Amino acid sequence: MKTLFLSSLAFVLMLITNPVNAQETINTQNNYVVLTKKVDQLKPIILTARSLKEEDGENFGDYQAIICGQDITLLTDKEKMKDFLTEAKEAGVKLIACGFSMKKFGVDAGEIPAEFEVVENGILYNFQLQKKGYYSLGL
């Protein structure tokens, strides 16, 4: 009888505490990362961020756009980048430049807009974000 009582008590406690623990571990934020080799893709990337922000509501988390490849040289074109920078800021898009691509194509970090964060390797950075649960898209 004593064993039955203790077993029942343990079972009830398990039912009560388990859902609470499960809720604490669920990440309710939707985080996104897009890796692109084309600067002109920033326009649809930013438009997508705006749509997802509206759709996700309070569950919208972080949204990052990584530029890699030869188009990294276009980041130094202030006129071309002006609208992208304004729109990205308004949409809450964090802009990332691939340091590996910058070295390969001779782009000095001082020549790109201050709004860009430079990471050592954009592809590796993308994988690291995916391991953290980010939804990822490569263009």
From TrEMBL:
InterPro entries for the chain: DsrEFH-like (IPR027396), Sulphur_relay_DsrE/F-like (IPR003787)
Coiled-coil intervals, chain numbering: none
Signal peptide positions (record): 1-22
Pfam families hit by this protein: DsrE
Entry keywords, A to Z: Signal
Name of the molecule in the record: Sulfur reduction protein DsrE
Organism: Antarcticibacterium arcticum
